[in-house]
Records
---
Amino acid sequence: MGVLIYVSILWLTGCGSNQPADSGPLTRRSEVVVEGLQAAVQVDSVAWETRSWALTGDGKFEITGSYGLFFRNLTDQPLELRYDLRFLDRDTFLIDVFNPFGLPLRLGPHQGRRQGDDFSIRAEEPRALDELQTMQVRVVVKQAQ
């Protein structure tokens, strides 16, 4: 029932399907968590933005946007990386996880590579539209076989 009320209010105020996402007063943040060979890789230039949202047929909210980041192998050995993007609200509760295509990412010795693409996440609660605050990049690094 709460979702219907929220959607009705949004519709009456001119918001709705494929409307620009309103970040409100929140400051967008990024976090990087590296597991495995932590000192072997540098992750920087992390950026993300939301573009739009839509109400899906099953009553969920789909939020779309884009992200970009840069990986650098700091070692003399080839590395293999897997990463996902975890989207959190202002209370650090998980909204959804986005798994990029084309993984694992392989980096040669001292090689750097820019990664980025569009993302799409789904939320059960309409509050996620207003409270989406943090994109956490979780990276698992191991030596390439």
---
Amino acid sequence: MRPGADAGTVYLCCQPVDFRKSISGLAVLVEQALGLDPFAHALYVFTNKERNRVKLLYWERNGFCLWYKRLEKDHFVWPRHPPGATVTLTVEELNWLLDGFDLWRQPHQYLRYRAVS
């Protein structure tokens, strides 16, 4: 089960983190390194150096929740040249990322025709 559609904003941390960090370490990272509010209505997404693991941190009413996924084969596709420390995603895009899709790949070419022949 994944965090639901009411998750608010999804912040993807672009740099890999040390996965020995748990809730407290990741919350400090959100606040100090990313400059974001760990108590906000948001999901914070982290990966390890090998990109075969993902952790999601979020605040739920009276405590932090930590969601964790480990791939047995393959790796998650992460932004190659991020413009900053985080990338904002929708919950739908997060689910695509968790399913293995490359969100930063060029989409299909847009075609414009003037007539049907």
